[in-house]
């Protein structure tokens, strides 16, 4: 069988606190067979794009109390995540050599996937393939489920999006605008604020790092209160939002990145607002909503083609630059959806 060197990103050891580039090794010591054994049901993939997602930092930690649905990394082995790939060899009846797919794959040049039924075949190639790590991938399912299924806002609603320039937030804001809402986003730099207002069509945006009083900032942008808050930050931002929600408002929670790598989660002072204002809080994850994918494609692909929705990506080249790109997520270094491109 033909063998090929297989560059990989290896997790050295379990990570505590914020991940660092030094937590990873880039190796080319392993090799992989480019043909499958007779009778195998597996597929061999050549990886093209790898997705950097905040959830990956959970998977680097030693799971004292494992969370359902999470696959934790093994020190000394390659990490994995969502990616886009081309099928090199297939023993699966629904996938053939040359097919393009997205799904969970290794952070390596070639991946052998033993359960290929979890891969999604890509049929629409008139949009960038990298979009299948973002707007047409896991972040896209998250944004679509939240805004179109779990709690669709009404025309005229006021919508606040935190981490608004990231993989999910930029979509939530644009979808809410398509629904006729007033939308404000928060981000961590003036450059990102300009992106939200000038390219993504948000009504307004602010740099939370330059706001000494988040409650006052929200009152400035939402003098009559917030109908829908799309929560991705937590901590002080959530505490301030609770003071500014409208009666019967809704908070959709898909992440709290400010709380991921601190020793003790920040306490919230304003929880009584939930009762006083009869606020609905709905936590959700993409894992429960992949069945919506055909509906997502039917709804969102026309918006992409008609340029009613744009998607901003931060693409770095080369697997060796993957750890730096991934670690940068946790300091806000990325500008848009962070993607690692491998040689095609």
Automatic annotation (TrEMBL):
It comes from the Eukaryota. InterPro entries: ADH-like_C, ADH_N_2, ER, GroES-like_sf, MDR_fam, NAD(P)-bd_dom_sf. Coiled coil: none annotated. The chain crosses the membrane at residues 129-150. It holds the Pfam family ADH_N_2. Keywords: Membrane, Oxidoreductase, Transmembrane, Transmembrane helix. Residues 43-340 form the Enoyl reductase (ER) domain. GO terms for molecular function: 2-alkenal reductase [NAD(P)H] activity. This is 2-alkenal reductase (NADP(+)-dependent)-like. It comes from Senna tora. The lineage of its organism: Eukaryota, Viridiplantae, Streptophyta, Embryophyta, Tracheophyta.
């Amino acid at each position: 069988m033909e063998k090929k060197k297989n560059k990989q990103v290896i997790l050295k050891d379990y990570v505590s606190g914020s991940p660092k580039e030094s937590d990873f090794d880039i190796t080319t010591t392993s090799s992989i067979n480019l043909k499958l054994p007779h009778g195998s049901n597996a597929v061999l993939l050549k990886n093209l794009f790898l997705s950097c997602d905040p959830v990956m930092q959970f998977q680097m930690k030693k799971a004292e109390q494992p969370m359902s649905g999470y696959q934790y990394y093994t020190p000394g082995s390659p990490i994995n995540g969502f990616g886009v790939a081309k099928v090199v060899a297939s023993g699966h009846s629904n996938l053939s050599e040359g097919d393009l797919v997205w799904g969970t794959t290794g952070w390596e040049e070639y991946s052998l996937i033993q359960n290929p039924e979890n891969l999604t075949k890509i049929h629409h190639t008139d949009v960038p393939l990298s979009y299948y790590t973002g707007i047409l991938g896991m972040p896209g399912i998250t944004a679509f489920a939240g805004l179109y299924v779990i709690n669709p806002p009404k025309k005229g609603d006021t919508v606040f999006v935190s981490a608004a320039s990231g993989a999910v937030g930029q979509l939530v804001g644009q979808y809410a605008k398509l629904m006729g809402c007033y939308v404000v986003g928060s981000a961590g730099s003036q450059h990102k604020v300009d992106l939200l207002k000038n390219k993504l069509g948000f009504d307004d945006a602010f740099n939370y790092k330059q706001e000494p009083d988040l409650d006052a900032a929200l009152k400035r942008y939402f003098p009559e209160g917030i109908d829908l808050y799309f929560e991705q930050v937590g901590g002080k931002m959530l505490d301030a939002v609770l003071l500014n929600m409208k009666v019967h408002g809704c908070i959709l929670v898909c992440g709290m990145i400010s709380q991921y790598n601190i020793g003790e989660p920040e306490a919230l002072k304003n929880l009584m607002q939930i009762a006083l204002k009869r606020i609905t809080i709905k936590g959700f994850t993409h894992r429960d909503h992949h069945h919506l994918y055909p509906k997502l494609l039917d709804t969102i692909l026309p918006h992409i083609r008609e340029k009613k929705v744009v998607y901003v990506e931060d693409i770095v080249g080369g697997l060796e630059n993957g750890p730096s790109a991934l670690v940068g997520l946790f300091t806000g270094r990325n500008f848009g959806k962070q993607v690692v491109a491998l040689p095609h």
